[in-house]
Amino acid sequence: QVQLVESGGGSVQAGGSLRLACQFYRFYGSKCMGWFRQVPGKEREGVAGIINGVGDTLYADSVKGRFTISQDNAKNTVYLQMNSLKPEDTAMYYCAADYGWCGGNWLTSRPRYWGQGTQVTVSS
Length: 124
Prior knowledge:
mainly beta
């Protein structure tokens, strides 16, 4: 079955950087994909997404200019480069995906496929 496997989380001081990776297994063809995050007691938040085959991207306002989403089709992997990290970026980060192309509201939707999550902790 389809699997999304994240890696790259960890602990970093404010101002630092981390890169998350999500590899897709048995998930081929066109897809929109991206990253969501969740803090205990709060709703899951869409962070960044690639929503079509030409690479159109979406970002939450809170991460624009600091986070960059990218993909490596040969490796069937999507990345999230996180720079200038802030304590408020601390969360469990989840990779997510849907088959096909998605619209501009994808970050507020609930994708069908999810990874297991990777923890990001930013200390002040």
